[in-house]
Amino acid sequence: MSTPTTSLDKGDRNDKGRAREEAAALLADMPLTHGSLPRRAAPLTLLAFVLAGIAVWQTGLLGAAFAGILVAVGYTAVIYVWARRVEGPRGAFDRLVTAVVSSAFALALLPLISVISTVVSEGAARFDADFFNNSMLGVVDEGGGAHHALMGTLIITGIAALMSVPVGLMTAIYLIEYGRGRLARWITFFVDVMTGIPSIVAGLFVYALFELFYGPGIRMGFMGSVALSVLMIPVVVRSAEEMLKLVPNELREASYALAVPKWRTILKVVLPTALAGIATGVTLAIARVIGETAPLLITVGITRGDNFDPFNERMATLSVFSYNQYAYAPGHARDLFYERAWAAALTLILIVMTLNLLARLIAKLFAPKTRA
């Protein structure tokens, strides 16, 4: 016996059919695809605005920063309006987000480019052999160099690295492999605090510490190394700790399964696996402290001649040398002193750049080999 179709069922079917017809009519009037901007539309538009910004900057109407902001805003607005007319709302929004991200990146590069170009242009005048082979001993105005400051920087930073790397690495090993409970939490807390302390605080602390043993007015290179190590240790701990966390636990468990002691597992399995990241972190930590001025100004001071003994009297460093040449330039020879200050700053930038490239090379050479 069949059930008769009710009027309610017929009404539902009619409503569904009417909805399908309306949707089909709507889709027939709406294109399923939109056009697309030419492949090189965005880069060429950006290039046009960059050239216009450079022209405005060169004419002196706007500074470099305001010209860069004008380029970013103009490029973003034009590319969004153009894409909305051609590609529709969704494509235009995608172009808008891409333009905003690209413009933010370009604006972030502007200060870096400005600093590098200024230091290179100003420091190139004294970036010669005499600058690296002579000190300031006996020099009044013209001539002289930063040989004593360059050697002092390398000596002080090298001693700081020798003190900081073992302490920082062993602290990281303890926190990852052994640390449990309250002591580990307190160590982690103090490492976080030390990471954010101002550099001058480290210099004042070291000066006060050495003053207790040697009396007021003490200055020597080793004090600067201790101050830099206070700044380096938390950076080394943090970088080494993160690299040790990335070592898979399966490697440790496989070693333990072969009855290998824990200390030998750390030495032969964990550390070699994390060596690339640890070496990179150490190199970047050295690059971070090599240009410090405030702690070295307090603990090491400045000298005009060569002194390569870190345990006897004052030494010179590139950062303090650059500051001293700029701050105490006499009026009759101001340009000569400024040239030496800029040349020392350029040397520091080149050293930091070399250390960063070295960190990348170390990471590439010592990275764990994986099968393709």
Describe this structure in words.
With 372 residues, the chain is mainly α. It folds into 2 domains: 36-125, no CATH class; 132-365, MetI-like fold (Orthogonal Bundle). Helices cover 75% and strands 0% of the residues. The protein has 14 helices and no strands. The chain has helices at 7-29, 41-59, 64-123, 129-133, 147-178, 182-195, 199-214, 221-245, 249-257, 262-273, 275-289, 294-299, 318-327, 334-365. The longest helix has 60 residues, at 64-123. The mean pLDDT is 85. It holds the Pfam family BPD_transp_1. Keywords: Cell membrane, Membrane, Phosphate transport, Transmembrane, Transmembrane helix, Transport. Residues 150-359 form the ABC transmembrane type-1 domain.
Mean pLDDT: 85
Main sheet? none
The CATH architecture term of the largest domain is Orthogonal Bundle
Helix content: over 70%
Which superfamily, in CATH terms, is the homologous superfamily of the largest domain?
MetI-like
Membrane topology: Multi-pass membrane protein
InterPro entries: MetI-like, MetI-like_sf, Phosphate_PstA, Phosphate_transprt_permease
Transmembrane segments: 41-58, 64-83, 95-120, 149-175, 187-210, 216-237, 269-290, 341-363
Subcellular location: Cell membrane
